[in-house]
Amino acid sequence: MLLTVVCVQLIWGLVGLRESVAQNATGKDEWWRDTFIYQVYTRSFKDSNGDGVGDLNGITSKLEHLVDLGVSAVWLSPIYASPMVDFGYDISNFTAIDPIFGTIDDFTRLIARAKALKLKVVLDFVPNHSSDTHPWFVKSVQRVKPFDEYYVWKDARIVNGTRKPPNNWLSQFQGSAWEWNDQRKQYYYHQFTARQPDFNYSSTALQEEMKNVLRFWLNRGVDGFRIGAINYLIEDSHFLDEPKSSSASFLPATDPNSLKHNYTVDRDQNYDILQAWRRVLDSTNGTRKVIMTEAYTTPYFTMKFHQHGSNIPFNFNLIRNIKLSSGALGCKGVIDGYLNELPSGALPNWVVGNHDNRRTGSRLNSRWIDQINMIAAVLPGVAIIYNGDEIGMIDRPMAWNETLDPAGINAGPLNYKFKSRDSARTPFQWDNSTSAGFSSNKKTWLPVNSNYKTVNLAIQKTQPYSHYSLMKKLISLKKNPILRNGTTETTIVHYAYLAIVRRLQNQSPVVLLINVHKTLVRYDIAAFINAPDKMTVYAANSWANISVGAQVDMTNFGIDGYGAVILI
Ligand code: NOJ
Ligand code: CA
User: Fold this and answer.
1) In this structure, which residue's CA is closest to atom 1 in ligand 1?
2) pLDDT tens per residue, range 88-129
């Protein structure tokens, strides 16, 4: 009997692998190919009832904005019941809407409106952990079957008569990853806060529960999932101490980067679990469902997701590896490195921003806002943008006493600035009215950035050279056949320019030129990159100081310092 089950699972596994590899080959006809996907951080997009927190009705009321932009899909950060310790990433009921966001009827209306507007809806799936208030955890504490095995429980180590955690594993949010539970008299494992116990995926009952969560939302019309923290699902069953990393000597012993995560991250079985979820999505009728996976990891482990059912294994290179000091050569290296590592035929993707990272204008500087957007647009594949990227929102610095993010709070008053994600999560800046048009309430859950009077959507709609008008052009450019099917060259032109050239046989190329220097440099760019002598400016950032629509002489061409142009 057991053998039959294993064989059936093996055959399923092989079929699944073949399917996902075939589907990944270029993602040719998939709806997400060559589009922009837009992340809404639910708490900060639009508040409909004046309580200072964004909600579903708020999102529904603003879906037209996404249609105007031209994105294919909206991904919603968690909308589920939660005590909000990690602002929705600590879920107490995976199939209920948190009252702060609305009701299931509000959700149904949101889906209906999105469908009418031909917008796809992608939900966040948070399968690594639940809230400690989830009834499964409460029953697990009480050792009620089968919940007793839903979480990772271990006995204490007794050292010189004192109770110690089972090993040295550290939480991503500082300190031991083990929390003592006095009722069950065991430690439970938590990769994030102690209020987010990790699931134990060796429980088949748990595996089924999580598939049912996917089915629940698929039946309500969602078009796919963003799967968070997927590389943390499985822990090695030997529970050995992790070795110290090379940075251990200059980091506090509580910092997760002081260990090499040999036993807690990037385990092989994570990929098997993903394939099982892929099969659940593939057996649902209707439009093809997308899977986007979040894993901050090495290229090898990122690329492996392409062969195991993820359509969009997030590529964080633009966020994590482009620095102010990169220069044209550094940027080229980051882009080429990623494209060269991609499995043959896999669809590339470029993450521009999200709720876990500083915004471009603050991480780098304001000049880079449009440049990063332009790079993500001109390179092949999908671009994933975060609410506010389209208007160049920047971080709002937070004082210690304003800090809400547990990643910041756990780091303490001296280090919270390096860890807190609050600054990038402030309310969307719609206009120059109360609370930037986000809420009728003057007090919002996180403060509105004080720059909202000048940085807001309404004002940018009136400006021909705004971040917003550029973003619209970029999103529409993605559909250009040269970008869809052309080759990609990255070139350093005369030390000053990063050039990305997209080419289709017998057609004039599409060229992105970024001047990484502070002064204008003229050069025979046509000869250097084999482009026509005359090209037209399709889009430009404000630094370029050049008119959209202008025809330029590429044999003696230059743009002002920090300028960026797309030529066609
Ligand atoms: C991934 C989410 O993007 C992040 O915001 C959250 O803190 C962690 N998962 C833990 O749930
Ligand atoms: Ca609200």
Assistant:
1) 228
2) 999 999 999 999 999 999 999 999 999 999 999 999 999 999
